[in-house]
Amino acid sequence: MSELTHLDESGAARMVDVTDKAATSREARAEAFIRMLPETVDMIVEGEHPKGDVLAVARVAGIMAAKKTHELIPLCHALNLTSVKVELTPNTEVPTGVHVEVTCRLSGQTGVEMEALTAANIAALTLYDMCKAVDRGMEIEGVRLLEKKGGRSGHWQRT
């Protein structure tokens, strides 16, 4: 098997060759938080946002982003995801905003960390886009991997 690196023999960038890796069950969870004014969160929770159900739109955007990660991140593999779950939880306590958590799964030769991280980012960015007319000061923060399972490196969980 070739060495798992993004550099070829001459030092040029390339996609990692996973041809000889066994397909295994893999899972990754990532999160993001979009901080917003309490009034904005209330609008979302009460279903009174002028643009409708912004959580539903952000959920679909996150799923679509996970499926297209290879088109956004150079040298990422196109993956056949078997499951993408995007959970959006409004937080009415300080800090007010929406917590985004994404879980991606597949059986394959490479992990799904980038897909989960991309989906969390895009879901949060979609919320920003949908809410910016009522709240320009929103901030997206805390984008991070929470857990990964499977593959050669095994299980890792943020503590």
UniProtKB/TrEMBL annotation:
Keywords: Lyase, Molybdenum cofactor biosynthesis. Residues 15-151 form the Molybdopterin cofactor biosynthesis C (MoaC) domain. The active site is at 129. The keyword Lyase applies. Substrate binds at residues 75-77, 114-115. It holds the Pfam family MoaC. Pathway: Cofactor biosynthesis; molybdopterin biosynthesis. Its EC number is 4.6.1.17. It catalyses: (8S)-3',8-cyclo-7,8-dihydroguanosine 5'-triphosphate = cyclic pyranopterin phosphate + diphosphate. The keyword Cytoplasm does not apply. GO terms for biological process: Mo-molybdopterin cofactor biosynthetic process. One of its GO terms (molecular function) is cyclic pyranopterin monophosphate synthase activity. SUPFAM superfamilies: Molybdenum cofactor biosynthesis protein C, MoaC. It comes from the Bacteria. Belongs to the MoaC family. Homohexamer; trimer of dimers. PANTHER family: CYCLIC PYRANOPTERIN MONOPHOSPHATE SYNTHASE, MOLYBDOPTERIN COFACTOR SYNTHESIS PROTEIN A. Catalyzes the conversion of (8S)-3',8-cyclo-7,8-dihydroguanosine 5'-triphosphate to cyclic pyranopterin monophosphate (cPMP). This is Cyclic pyranopterin monophosphate synthase. It comes from Marinobacter nanhaiticus D15-8W. The lineage of its organism: Bacteria, Pseudomonadati, Pseudomonadota, Gammaproteobacteria, Pseudomonadales.
